[in-house]
């Protein structure tokens, strides 16, 4: 990649840092044993650092006070402002997923999408694959189109592999005719190794020891989301 890609002005400081490791534009990469050790240890430590940043973002706050729900996009599309390159934001997002659009980063009432993510339960504990959780979605979700809850693996950041063969094995959404809603229009969704009695249609399966996280997506979010008169509570361990 270093041989093929241009060196931008913003990259020059980094180029100076990696030169002692044998990474030089236009020169064959042939690291010695010391350089290999440094690069391998650096890659492992780098992943630990960015994984922690992905789970515990330090550049933002939960969208609703007192919850563990964060907006996945709390940065600019370019990950850059007039004064700062948004390194933490860029690192955590591209470790967890990839790409962004104006509609995802800056939705407005009735257009775009909101991606909310959570890695913790109502007691601020990291969610676990060996426990079952309930997510109560209140009635009147503020969307002009639909909402969805999708399960991802914390190990791979890909859709969760629980052995299912259908999309609904990892994703439940408001268009799903199999979902059972409560009398008041709200709905209880479940994630865990076993489905509570009578709730199988509203359940997504986890398999230990793979950790997980979710995206709760709102397509064409409406005003109650933006003014926060509608709130999504945390997962409850049951």
**Which class of secondary structure composition applies to the elements?**
alpha+beta
Q: Between the first and last Cα atoms, what is the distance in angstroms?
A: 48 Å
Instruction: Identify the overall geometry.
Output: globular
**Number of DSSP E strands:** 9
Question: Biggest β-sheet: count, sense, barrel?
Answer: 5 strands, antiparallel
Low-confidence stretches: none
Biggest sheet: strand arrangement: 1-2-8-4-5
Element-by-element helix/strand order: HHEHHEEEEEEEHE
Alpha carbon gyration radius: 21 Å
Oligomer: single chain
Helix content: 10-25%
Give the gist of this structure.
The protein has helices at residues 12-18, 33-55, 87-96, 102-105, 223-226; strands spanning 70-71, 113-118, 133-137, 147-153, 171-173, 187-192, 203-205, 212-219, 236-237. The protein has 238 residues and is of the alpha+beta class. It is globular.
Would you kindly provide a written description of the structure presented here, covering whatever features stand out?
The chain has 238 residues and is of the alpha+beta class. The protein has 5 helices and 9 strands, in the order ααβααβββββββαβ. Strands 1-2-8-4-5 form a 5-stranded antiparallel sheet. Helix 2 packs across helix 3. It is globular and about 65 Å long. The model has no long low-confidence stretch (mean pLDDT 95).
Task: Give the secondary structure arrangement, pairings included.
Blueprint (H helix, E strand, L loop, with lengths): L11 H7 L14 H23 L14 E2 L15 H10 L5 H4 L7 E6 L14 E5 L9 E7 L17 E3 L13 E6 L10 E3 L6 E8 L3 H4 L9 E2 L1
Parallel strand pairs: 6-7
Antiparallel strand pairs: 1-2, 2-8, 3-6, 3-9, 4-5, 4-8
Helix pairs in contact: 2-3
């Amino acid at each position: 990649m270093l041989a093929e890609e241009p060196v931008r002005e913003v990259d020059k400081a980094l180029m100076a840092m990696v030169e002692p490791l044998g990474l030089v534009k236009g020169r064959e990469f042939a690291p010695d044993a010391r350089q290999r050790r440094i690069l391998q240890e650096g890659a492992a430590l780098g992943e630990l650092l960015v994984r922690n940043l992905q789970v515990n973002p330090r550049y933002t706050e939960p969208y609703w006070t007192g919850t563990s729900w964060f907006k996945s996009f709390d940065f600019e599309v370019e990950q850059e402002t007039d004064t700062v390159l948004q390194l933490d934001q860029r690192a955590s997002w591209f470790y967890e997923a990839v790409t962004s659009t104006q509609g995802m980063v800056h939705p407005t009432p009735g257009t775009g999408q909101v991606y909310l993510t959570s890695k913790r339960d109502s007691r601020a504990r990291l969610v676990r694959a060996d426990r079952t959780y309930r997510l109560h979605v209140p009635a009147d979700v503020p969307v002009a189109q639909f909402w969805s809850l999708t399960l991802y693996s914390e190990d791979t950041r890909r859709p969760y592999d629980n052995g299912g063969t259908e999309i609904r094995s990892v994703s439940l959404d408001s268009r799903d005719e199999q979902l059972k809603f409560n009398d008041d229009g709200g709905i209880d969704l479940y994630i865990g190794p076993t489905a509570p009695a009578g709730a199988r249609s509203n359940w997504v399966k986890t398999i230990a020891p793979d950790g997980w996280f979710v995206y709760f997506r709102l397509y064409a979010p409406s005003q109650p989301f933006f003014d926060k008169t509608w709130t999504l509570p945390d997962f409850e361990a049951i």
